[in-house]
Amino acid sequence: MKSWEGVGEAYAASYASLCAGTHDDLVRRLGPAHGRRLLDVGSGTGALAAQLADVGWSVTGCEPEPTMRAVAAREHPLLAVIDGALPVLPFAGAQFDAVTANFVLNHVPDPRAAAREITRVVQPSGVMIATIWVVSPSWFWQGVAERAGLAAPAGTGLPPDKDFERTSAGFGRMLSEGGWHAVDVSELGWTWWATADELWRSAEGGVASAGALYLSLDASERARYARAFDRLCEEHSLDGRVALDHRAAVAVGTAR
Where does the Methyltransferase type domain lie (predicted)? Predict the structure, then answer.
C-alpha cells in the first residue's frame, strides 16, 4: 500500500481538490445535521470535515499522518482532528451518529477489519458513508512513465485474502462482509480540471504511486520524467488545464 508519510503540503496543493469532488454528494446523502456527532475517518487536511461542520454537524476528524493534521490545524483551526487510524480507532463504541470515510478504505491494509471498526464506533442504525476510486488519474501517470522510458507505477497491492475487487459491486460486497448492513453503492463521476502545477506538485511531493515513483528516480531519470510530463500536459490541456475524468463508488450503509 502507498505511504502518505510527509505528503500533507503536497497533497493540499494537488489531490485535495480532486478528492473534494465527492464532498457535496456526501453532505447531501447524510441529510440534516441537527448538531449530531460525526466522525470523519482519514480526514486528511480537513476539508470535508470542515464542510460538514459548516452545515451543522458536530465533527471530529481522525487522521494518522502528522503533516496532514498540520495543514488541517492551519486551514481549519476550530476543527478537532485526533491522531488515529483504522483498523483501531481511539474512540468508545457507539460514540457517533454518522461516519464518513472518503477515499480511505482503498488505502488500508485490511479493508474488512477497517469496515468492522467503523461499525463499532457508530450508534445503532447510524449512517456510514465510504468512497473508493473506480476511475483514477493513474492512466495519466502511466503515460508519463512510458514516455520517459520508465516502469509505470504499479503499487504494491494487498494479499489476496485481504484485497477486494475495486468495482462498485466488489466494494459493496467487501463492506457487507465487514459488517455493514443495507449497503447501497452508486457511482459518481466528474472531471478534475487540474493545472500542470497541481499535477506536478503531487509527483514532486511524493503523493500516491506516481509520487513514490518520482522520488525513487535519479537526477537523469527525473529530468526525463519531467519532459514527458510537460509533453503529455500540452497534449491534453485546454485553456491551461488538463481535463481528467474520474469516477468514485459511493457506499451508504448502517451499523446494525
Answer: 39-129
DSSP, collapsed to helix, strand or coil, labels residue 23 as: helix
Place of cell 473508493: 132
Q: Give residue 25's domain range.
A: 8-136+156-193+244-254
pLDDT per residue as tens digits for the range 161-213: 999 999 999 999 999 999 999 999 999 999 999 999 999 999 999 998 899 99
Q: Looking at 148-198, which runs of residues are DSSP E strands?
A: 181-195
- What is the Cα–Cα distance from 133 to 202, expressed in whole angstroms? 17
Give a yes or no: residue 204 inside a domain. no
Chain centroid to CA 207: 11
Coil vs helix vs strand at 22? helix
Compute how many other C-beta atoms are within 10 angstroms of the C-beta atom of residue 20: 16
Sign for the pseudo-dihedral over CA of 94, 95, 97, 99: negative
Helices (H), 13-63: 15-19, 23-30, 47-54
Tell me whether residue 175 is in a domain.
yes
Considering the entire predicted model, what is its pTM?
Answer: 0.94
Q: Are 117 and 40 in contact (CB under 8 A)?
A: no
> Is the model's pLDDT at 106 over the cut of 90?
yes
Count: domains in the chain: 1
